[in-house]
């Protein structure tokens, strides 16, 4: 059972959207977390400064949220090995899909990108199918 948290969910979505808009207006860049994080790994490129600040801001914001009593209780219904395998599969999908949920889902759909719409429909369909198979068939 998932706890219903409309205020926290709305606030988080608002902050994600605001950060995407600010990054687009200030640097002219798409807020795709995987692309930003990947740009920090070797070989480095010339955009190291803003990418470092963006990732640091995401980490610091989560730490500040926790520090000021915003902890959210959660459980992991799968093993650590399953999380690692899922991360690897997601990384492969991000590579072949040329972007992640934040790049395609938040920024691409907001720009009415057809390519992003297809990507979002693809990964959401496979996410629904995966959850159904794991929870109801296996």
TrEMBL record:
InterPro entries: Sulf_transp_TsuA/YedE. Belongs to the TsuA/YedE (TC 9.B.102) family. The chain crosses the membrane at residues 6-27, 48-68, 74-96, 117-137. It is a multi-pass membrane protein. It is found in: Cell inner membrane. Keywords: Cell inner membrane, Cell membrane, Membrane, Transmembrane, Transmembrane helix, Transport. This is Membrane protein YedE/YeeE. It comes from Martelella mangrovi. It comes from the Bacteria. Its main location: membrane.
